[in-house]
Design goal:
single chain; 223 residues; alpha/beta; 6-stranded mixed sheet; 7 helices; 32% helix
Length: 223
């Protein structure tokens, strides 16, 4: 029996609205994010699942609760699903980062797989952490349907891995919108198949976050 993993990015939070590097900064859901959560709850209303795993941050925990609105699944907190540690970038405005940290910003935009930052995580560490975490979650829930609620950069790394690609293909994954859903299936031997990725079709255009983002080019996240 296959194990199905639905990966969900958290709803829009205040770091997205104010456009600073959110990382592990524990911000609240925004008013638009609350509307996104209502749409996400409706999307999962008729999807049967067994359990939810969530990053420990407030924005992911609130998103997990929304997924569970019409269900009664257990929600387990897994620290391994947390967002990249942004180190000295945490709480810095995206508009200021290219000037303050030009070398690191060039890596983030042009060679993301090589990104590393003082006092934070290297991208390779995020790739390894997320790959191991979701593999472990799948192994613990054979034959079940699981929802994993995490973050944009963290899920981008996992989806790269789930597609069978090394981290140097990270740019091909694209950014997911807030509350976007992806799906991966594991067979009995632990082999993975990416069914779909970054699907935000439950959101009308006016509830998209990335369409209005000044720092994330829309063409980079459409796929």
């Amino acid at each position: 029996m296959s194990t199905k993993i639905y990966c969900v990015r958290h709803a829009e939070a205040m770091g997205n609205v104010n456009e600073f590097f959110q990382g592990r900064t524990d911000t609240d859901i925004s008013p638009k994010g609350e509307k996104q959560l209502a749409r996400l709850a409706d999307r999962f209303k008729d999807i049967d699942f067994d359990i939810i795993y969530s990053s420990p941050l407030k924005r992911t925990r609130a998103t997990a609760v929304a997924v569970n609105k019409y269900h009664s699944a257990d929600i387990l907190i897994d620290d391994r699903l947390i967002e990249i540690n942004g180190g000295v970038w945490e709480n810095v405005k995206w508009a200021d980062i290219p000037t303050l940290y030009p070398e690191e910003y060039k890596l983030w935009t042009d060679k993301m797989e090589d990104f590393h930052i003082k006092d934070g995580e290297a991208m390779t560490e995020v790739y390894a952490r997320m790959s191991a975490a979701v593999d472990d979650i799948a192994a613990k829930n054979p034959g079940k349907t699981v929802v994993v609620v995490s973050h944009g950069c963290a899920l981008r790394n996992y989806l790269c891995y789930a597609n069978g690609d090394s981290i140097d293909k990270l740019a091909d994954v694209g950014w997911s919108d807030n509350t976007a859903v992806s799906c991966v299936e594991y067979d009995d031997n632990g082999q993975k198949r990416l069914i779909f990725k970054n699907d935000s079709s439950h959101l009308p255009e006016e509830l998209s976050t990335l369409r209005t983002s000044k720092w994330c080019r829309y063409e980079d996240k459409k796929d």
